[in-house]
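Support case: user asked for a sample of complex input and structure output to validate their parser. Sending the pair below.
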Amino acid sequence: MKSRRDFLKTAATGAVLLGAQGKLGLAELLDQHKSKVVVARDAALRSAEGHLDEKRVADLLDRAIAAYTGRDKPVEAWKRIVPVGKVIGLKINGLGGKAIATHLALTLAVCERLQQAGVKPGEIVVWECRRSDLERAGYTISTDRSRIRCIGSDMDGYGFEERPDAFGSVSVNLARILTRECDFVINLPVPKDHSLGAGVTFSMKNMYGVVERPQDLHGGGCNPGVADLNCITTIRDKVRFTIGDATASIYEGGPQFHPEHLWYPNALIVGEDRVALDYTAWQLIDRKRAEMGLPTLEAAGRPPRYIATAADQAHRLGTNDPQRIHLMEV
Amino acid sequence: MKSLLVFAAIIFAVTVVGTGCKKKSLDPFPKSGAVAGWDKTSETRVYAAKDLYQYIDGDAEQYISAGVVSTSTSDYKYQGQLEATVDVHTMGSAAGARKILETGTKDAKPIQLGDAGVAYAQSIIFRKGTALVRIVAYESTPDTPQALLALARGVEAKL
């Protein structure tokens, strides 16, 4: 058990990282500090029928954010995370359909807290690659700019940049919602097994949903595609915080919804170091696989190699070294 | 007179063959009420092989490598509560459908459906000819297995 002093020290480190990333850079700070990842759990998050309790989801979010920022009051905590007066994007993951998408209850809780922290409804954009992904995940499309928008990149008036952005092996056309609408993006991915090579899909892989042709980036187990994509300046600079929806997950056969491999970690995974977050999700899925008598992802021939690539000297997106990750389980 | 009969026979044959072809290309999705308790709650969406990633992301790769031609999908609801999705993958050959069905089904229970099929607590997968059908429910209730099986039989009858 950590002392309150230690807790506050590490919590403050997280807040410093968040605020200073643009000036000093995460890579430099990683040389001095551990990357904080918060895993907040609530075993009673669901009813006996398996439905999420919206109130408990909001409470769990508050607990996770409080642990990360060291601020008990949600409004104060959120003010340390997001800039006021800027447009905040919430990039969800809707590809798996309702059961294994970013749950609406979590997205609504984030929207509520953002507004309480001073972000106007018209400055919040909930978005995914396609309108159909949002609808299948249970979201209602809204294009009114005076209210919280919920839009797909494939909708009229949005689309993708004509000029590609490139880094390393990737050259992609980014979603205009990212390049032109949002100043700061909160990533809301879902941790899942990715049975066709990537091994794990979570924080960095969710950025496949901000490009026009993600299918071009799946070669080699998405390595180095995932790492290269996250090094593109707009993604690296704007996608600053992750609230992973680990209330439900798929430990085998993903990323498609396979109910036979569905499980409920009933957790949120929060942080800003996207590599450390993905490493944490990988460990989470591997532990569940072991519990179910399945081989580890490494033994199954699909370790998420892009995580180490993202941490290497050419990418420096964060750390995959467990000794340099401060994991807080609350 | 003889040539007239030959002409009539040709017209008849073309009509029969044409009708046969049409039957094969009929919508495999049961309408609301066609299977007791089930309502079709969305339009049918169709994805060509090259666009399949839009629907199932990285999972598209395994279907493409097995020769998928197109995928049609629609949502259903049972007794106004249990939600499910029906995917009908039209493969280039029966071998392609077999290849997908045989992937990752070791824990499944075999069922008599189409040419072959398996069932889990919340999903059914079966193949019939070049069609590979996957039906997934989003909740596990006592009614789920039987309700899914009834819907699967409704789809099979239309293939």
